[in-house]
Structure formats: C-alpha cells, structure tokens
Write a structure and sequence with these properties.
- This is Helix-turn-helix domain-containing protein.
- This protein is of the alpha+beta class.
- The protein has a single domain, classed as Multidrug-efflux Transporter Regulator, Chain: A, Domain 2 (Orthogonal Bundle).
- Helix content is 49%, strand content 16%.
- It contains four helices and three strands, in the order H-E-H-H-E-E-H.
- Strands 1-3-2 form a three-stranded antiparallel beta sheet.
- It starts with a helix and ends with a helix.
Length: 77
C-alpha cells in the first residue's frame, strides 16, 4: 500500500506543470481574491480540475491557460 501511495504522489510534481491557487489569482490584473476564484469555479465560470498534493490543490498549467483564454473571450473579467 505504501508503494502505491508513494508512486501516486510522485506522479504529481507541483513545481513542474501545475499552478497553485495563489499563482492563478495573480494571473488576473488586478489579482482576484481566493473567494472570487472559488465562486467562479463553483458557478462554472472557470472549469478547472484540481489535483490534490498533500493538503493543497494544484491546477494543470495548460488547463488554466485554456480557461483564461475562454474567460477573456467571453468578456467575463
């Protein structure tokens, strides 16, 4: 069981291809609050899949960039 858990956690390297919530909110100008980010995810404005690493959530960079482009096109910022 320990081997499986170790392998799964090693698959997600948050430093490499993932943004944290604080990094995502800083992509907006001005930066949005954590509450706004949570509300947009809840209401489907930003459709992001969280990857949990420890007790933190990370989001794949490509998915975040795609959602930001879609978000800017629709003019919801």
């Amino acid at each position: 069981m320990k081997t499986f858990i170790r392998t799964e956690t090693e698959l997600i390297n948050p430093e490499a291809d993932y943004y944290s919530l604080s990094e995502i909110r800083k992509l907006f100008n001005p930066p949005i609050s954590y509450v706004t980010l949570w509300r947009w995810q809840k209401n489907g404005i930003l459709k992001l899949t969280p990857y949990v690493y420890g007790n933190k959530k990370f989001y794949h960079i490509d998915e975040v960039n795609q959602e930001l482009k879609r978000h800017k096109k629709s003019g919801k910022q």
